Amino acid sequence: MNEMPEAGPAATSLEDKAPGPAPASAPARPAAEAPVLAGSRRRGKRILVILFAVSIAVAVGAAAMTAVLLAHRPQRAHVAAHPLRATVFGLHPGQCFNSLPNGIAGAHAVPCAQPHDGEIYGVFLVAGHQWPGSAALGSQARQGCQTRLAGYLNPQLATSDLAESYAYPNQGAWATGEHRVICEIRGTQGRLTGSVRASSP
């Protein structure tokens, strides 16, 4: 019988009652079967709980390891394109160039033997750290380039077809650390062919 004993003085324990005949429709089952099934279920639940806990621990460990690896991986230096890289500020004396459509300072180097827009004949650094202003910087650029032209130019060339020019940084370029002035020779009648330099470097 599956009834639990009642509480109180009238309670009768199961041992005091004679076992009654089993119902005809219910098959007899061994006494030990119920505890075995209950024990198996408990063990199964325990294993599931343990597996669940282990899987959570593995997931947390993997996440922590991924976070550590991402935090400590070597950082690649982000190489930002310098705003003056594709300009005359990237060229040196003796290099010839063709202008790019992005402004007067935009340029890329070409061999002097082929037709070109201009040639770099001088580069110098402007002293000071504070932005001097466009007017003052333009004046320094003009004077500095004029003093360098005579020592570079081939005296046998006809200078009537040549014009000197210069490029200096604006305030934004100055703030990035570009403090150089670039001195250029350009043709007044179109492109030049060959160098205007007095001698090879």
Structure description:
- Strands 2-1-3-5-4 form a 5-stranded antiparallel sheet, with helices on one face.
- The protein has 201 residues and is of the alpha+beta class.
- The protein is built from 3 helices and 5 strands.
- The chain is 32% helix and 15% strand.
- The N terminus is likely disordered.
Briefly say what this structure is.
The protein has 201 residues and is α+β, with helices and mostly antiparallel strands. The protein has helices spanning 33-72, 134-152, 171-175; strands at 96-99, 107-110, 118-125, 162-167, 180-187.
What attributes does this structure have?
201 residues; alpha+beta; 15% strand
Question: What percent of the residues sit in helical stretches (DSSP H or I)?
Answer: 25-40%
* Derived structural class: alpha+beta
In whole angstroms, the N-to-C terminal distance is 115 Å
Q: Please describe the biggest sheet, giving its number of strands, its sense, and whether it closes into a barrel.
A: 5 strands, antiparallel
Please state the overall shape, judged from the principal axes of the Cα atoms. elongated
Number of strands: 5
Radius of gyration, rounded?
A: 46 Å
Question: Which oligomeric form is depicted?
Answer: single chain
Order of helices and strands: HEEEHEHE
Please indicate the percent range of residues in DSSP E strands (runs of 2 or more). Answer: 5-15%
Rounded mean pLDDT is 74
The number of distinct helices, counting runs of at least 4 residues, comes to 3
> Which residues form runs of ≥5 with pLDDT under 50?
1-27, 30-34, 74-83
The largest beta-sheet arranges its strands as: 2-1-3-5-4
